[in-house]
Structures are given as C-alpha cells and as structure tokens.
Amino acid sequence: CDADPVTAGEVALALQEHDWPGVLLGGPEMGFPDFAAVAGSAADGAVFVTPWPYPSDIADHSAFVTAYQALGPHVPPPGSLALPTYVTFQKVLTALARDISTHQTPTRAGMATVLSEMTWGEGGSDSLYAYRYRYGPSGVSVAVEMEALR
C-alpha cells in the first residue's frame, strides 16, 4: 500500500471488512500514528518497511532522546520522523559551519560542495538499511528485522 497514512488506514479497514486473509505491506508512512489511529484493530499484522529505525530501536536511545529534546522546550518526544530529521539537521548545520569557515559567509556553491562530500549512511558509511516493523494487536509497531542493503 503506497498511500498516505490515513488512506492506508482506510484500506486496512476495508480489507478487514471483507475478511481479506493477506498482510498489508507499506512504506514508511504506514509507521505514522495516523495509520494506526484510522486502522484501529485492522492494523494488527500490517507490515511496513522504512529506511530509518524508530529512535527507541537505535543504540544508546536515551542519549539521542536527550540530545533531541535539548533542541528546545517545545520539542515533543521523538516520533517516527525524529531520527532522519535530526540527522539531516545536524548535517546541514555542520555543512553551514564548514562553508562559513571557508568563505566567511555561506554560499550556495559552498554548501553544495560540503554536502556532497559528507557521508549520509548509518555509522558514517553510505550503506543503506531497511527496517521492517509489524503492528501488534494493540496498534503498536514492533521491530521485526533490520537488514543492510548494498
């Protein structure tokens, strides 16, 4: 199901109403809270694959949560988009600092150069990872598997 979270939840409900015996499979958007809220019990068993883990599934989870919430008092607890947003934000700030130290002021070309030189994969590599999650009966997603893809 390659739909937004609300539509995917509606699809899950429709499939449940017709006693469909299969497993609903989707991408990262099925990990958003709106999917489980709309699907309710129809989310049970649904699987989604995402290129990033939930913050609770990373090593040293508490250090990440502390750093994330230190961004300001308005920051909510980290959700499914917290990790990629945080990592991207940190990379952009690092690139900005490097560009300013080189050119005394940020430039579009300088930022493009610095960003192209940075690695973006987990652990400083450019490896890609796929994380598979399955919803349980309570509507909470549980990590099933992480696999490195090259």
Give me a quick take on this structure.
This protein is an alpha+beta fold and 150 residues long. The protein has helices spanning 5-17, 33-39, 61-69, 82-103, 108-117, and strands spanning 25-26, 47-50, 128-135, 141-149.
Task: Explain what this protein looks like in three dimensions.
With 150 residues, this protein is an alpha+beta fold. The chain is built from five helices and four strands, in the order H-E-H-E-H-H-H-E-E. The chain has a four-stranded mixed sheet, with no helix packed on it. It starts with a helix and ends with a strand. The model has no long low-confidence stretch (mean pLDDT 83).
List the helices and strands and how they pair.
Elements: H1 5-17, E1 25-26, H2 33-39, E2 47-50, H3 61-69, H4 82-103, H5 108-117, E3 128-135, E4 141-149
Parallel strand pairs: 1-2
Antiparallel strand pairs: 2-3, 3-4
* Poorly predicted spans: none
C-alpha-based Rg, rounded: 19 Å
Helix content: 40-55%
| Main sheet summary | 4 strands, mixed
Tally of helical segments:
5
User: Proportion of β residues?
Assistant: 15-25%
State the distance separating the first and last CA atoms. Answer: 24 Å
Listing every helix as H and every strand as E from the N terminus to the C terminus, the arrangement reads: HEHEHHHEE
Strand arrangement, major sheet = 1-2-3-4
